[in-house]
User: Fold these one by one.
Assistant:
Number 1:
Amino acid sequence: MAFDSHPPELELFIEKADKLENSGFVKKIKEEFTLDISIDLSREDPLNIRSIRPNQENIDAFILTFRFFIQDNEATSIRNLQKFFDSEFVTSEEKNKFNSARNNLNSFLSESTNLIFKDENISNQMLMDIFIYGELSHAKKSKKEKFDLWMSRDDAQEFFWHKFSHFCNQFNILRIFF
């Protein structure tokens, strides 16, 4: 970089990314993160789902910090950092590394979660939007309705929560950008 220290936005970006990496959410996923499904057709209720994942408090705390990277009203959002990396303050190599990481992130967001609900293939982006803006930090009407629809099926709830937890762990900001 063209200066001796990081600008405040990058300092905050690194601080928040480090906070996510050391969160109770990530610790829980590293310790034990399981989704076991068994089917026993001899039982009246043949489907048995056992899930171990971060609890709601871990998820809520993670999302509170995670929003620094995805909401454009934050200087640390990926979109806003793009403006910095497009400036004359960074070298071409740094700009290329950032753009490559951002392209990889956008590719990840467009990938399928391998979940299909009512004939709709759910991408990582959709999963993130529905959970965050339909339940965890906002309740935008259309997204809240979709979240409630996903959760209306007892046999599907844990699949969605597990996939969302996996998504959050895969979206690890430090691993993507540094």
Number 2:
Amino acid sequence: MERKWTEEVLGTDKPIIAMCHFMALPGDPGFDKAGGMEAVIKRAREEMLALQRGGVDAIMFSNEFSLPYLTDVRTETVAAMARVIGELKSELEIPFGVNVLWDPAKSLDLAVATGAKFVREIFTGVYASDFGLWNTNCGAVVRHQHEIGAEDVKLLFNIVPEAAKYIQRDDISQIAKSTVFNCKPDALCVSGLTAGAATDSQVLETVKNEVPDTIVFANTGVRINNVKEQLKIADGAVVGTTFKRDGKFENPVDEVRVKEFMDVVKEFRATL
């Protein structure tokens, strides 16, 4: 049987990609000007190391606290993210990806600059969202990927964007099928409504059944009490809020929670 790219790039079947959420960056409304970039780097280093020691398979760096998000991200955000990753990279021992919320071209730029193995983004669709009318241009982004030499960067397509809804399209199975046919994603990500909201297992199963030959990730709300159920369907999971202290989005990563979660994952993978 042909190996999945997740095994080759991330080192295992059913991988857990952990989110390392950067605090607000220069230009963001919540940026801590007194603490500056040093405070951002300090928090990111602590969380990255806690995730790594906790046993996750890969890490995805994102500007999660750059609220409210832009769909055309400014240069200062990408520059700040590149600096943080550059400062941490020598201590990173597992594969990593990046997500510049919500700008796929800038995510690819950051990936090339830092050596990231994958990006997760909204590549397709037109949405009514909390950020206004949200349009995409997958063809232009994929051409940009090739122009900047990012052909080997894996593209994780989030097809159920958080805080957004497809305009005039509701059938998730048809969205999955047409996205795979037209755009050839490396993986599809299925989300709940917001960060930390559980991915509906029925929706996840519908997507996987429609595109069985495509990698499908549970993208939000995977917890220690549902991870086995989710991984029976999905090819892996992206996990963020679950790893935070008390399971709250705004809190720092809790290494004990990470280890407990990964023990359950490893126990499940041993049965495969």
Number 3:
Amino acid sequence: MVKITVSDKRNPIPQSLELSENIKITTWGAIKVNKADFFPSSFQIKSGEKVIYIDPVEVDGTDKADYIFLTHAHPDHLSLKDIHKIAGPETVVVCSKGVEKKLARHNFQLRKVKPGDMLDLGDLKCKAVEAYNTKPVFLWIKAHPKSSENVGYILTLSDQTVIYHAGDTDYLPTMRDIKNTDVALIPVGGDNLTMNVEEAAAMVNTLKPKMVVPMHYELKVSDDINKFKSLTAGEIQVKVLQ
């Protein structure tokens, strides 16, 4: 059983990126996954007066969510405790099919999506995109098989800022179709769980976002993050949050 707690290496001050006067991305920082200190895929986005969470795990904030986006059902991405903490009666929870199965008996406003689906939420547009492994963890077994229909999300905010959260994934051919991204939140160095450093850098150099934020890595592998930065094209801003 996977045990998730707050890491004692967590920065006591939440780390934020202010993209404009009205848009801010925040992370509460490191969690402990079993015994490993880990920077998660968990973010809050404030767009004007709207509050958006992606894969909230061990969040410290008390801001109620307008929208919660969940990529898949692994416990470092899906925390029922945190969803209950930030969800109100009007919160829309957008999720993949594996997550919907786990949340179906709870009283949430669920919107199930699969890769390729698009949602128009008025002040927020969402496209669900593929997120899966091409390489196995053991023999033929993959941590994130394509058949699970896990997703990443491309979010277009009210001012047309585009944020791409890749979820847990390898470098996929369909990523070449993702255009005009302002911020990409990308897993780095995940053994056979996600892209390794070289794959992540190659993906980012193809995608060409204005800014990239590495996620889903162990804190002890800081050399991986430095290598990722060195392999990323110079015009792409790399922001490391911890």
Number 4:
Amino acid sequence: MSIVDELLSNSFVKIRNPSDVEAKLHKIIKDGYNNLMILADFDYTLSKFKDLNGKECLITHSIFVKCTQEVKPELSEKLKVICNKYGPFEHSTQISREEKISKMEDWWNLSHECIVDSALSHDDIEKFVKDAPLYLRDFAKEFMELIEIKNVPLIVFSAGIGNVIEMILQQNLGKIPSQLHIISNFMNFNKKNICESFTEPTIHSCCKNSTVISGEQAYSEDIKNRPNIILLGDSIEDVQMDIGMVNESTAIKIGFLNHSIDSRFDEYSKAFDILLIDCQSMEIPLKLLKLCENFDFKNVKNLDAIKNL
């Protein structure tokens, strides 16, 4: 049984081009950890889309809508109005990409202005995060622990809020992984620990790749000799996160299709190499990552290795 056959034995795994995926996986596994990097979205990719009761979880921005209803009701209402106005444009096929990008910039910038105007403190936000229904996927902790042990760079491109991502990781892992680089919208705090601005440029759902950032990046030295990529995302835009990775050789793109499965399946299965349907776990990416260690290609037909991970 091949690697792909073993993956497809899981009913939630879909692969449109098995032979292509098999070849990519063999290349990545053969080259090992020293030639690998991980690119990942955060909201609904590293974090869960729904909880154990089937209720939709929050994303990093929606914390400021849901968790402020009592303490900052004006902020919550303003953000709801902005979301209702601009949200329908995010996945619209009726407008040009240029217009969509303009709408997304307006949405993010207006939301950030409202958050700044509300004068939230760092402590306020930490409490929101602690109490919010925003959870890492099952096996996400083990996934990030393994890539730290193996010194595999993890670059998170997120249109969310970087400080919130760091707080979630700190609360779940007890630290920020040493090889993690977060490219996101970060809140700047003044001497009184009050949010006074956001970093620029604004990173929204249509510009999550390295081309949006100018100048040399902190992660550049870590990835310059790593041509292989495992990419993780939950939106069609996420497949472009590897744009600007100049030394890219082989990329396996794994997509989480969280909702509207019937209407979005064809588009997603064409865009992603491996599609995970209604899955709240990082089990498959973790299994593939583990295969990079001491994999015996002479016994590739006997996949006890992957079965026992």
